[in-house]
Amino acid sequence: MQVKRMSEILGQFAMVGQLGLSLLMPLLMCLLACYLMCAKLSVGTWVYIPGFILGLGGSMTTAYKVYLSVIHKEEKKKKAKNSSEVSFNRHF
After folding, report:
1. What are the respective helix, strand and coil percentages of the chain, to the nearest 5?
2. Going residue by residue through the chain (92 aa), what tens digit of pLDDT does each one get?
3. What is the residue extent of each domain of the chain?
4. Distance from CA of residue 63 to its chain's centroid?
């Protein structure tokens, strides 16, 4: 029983780490692309503003998809738990 609980806790830590990376990476990638555009193509620094906005949009989209997958897993787990229980009308 203890090992199963520890496994669940480690799984939750992994999910938090994945969510953190999912939020951070699109923003960093867009800002890196803006930096490269400024350095190589000599465009103005105004490029950082749309890059930041696009990075935030990508981060929110990714976070929403991770949220939906977590909710889907919880519903699946809840269904499996409820189907194994015997209720008053389902004991035959």
Report:
1. 90, 0, 10
2. 688 888 888 888 888 888 888 889 999 999 999 999 999 998 999 999 999 999 999 999 998 998 898 899 888 888 877 766 656 665 55
3. 1-40, 45-83
4. 4
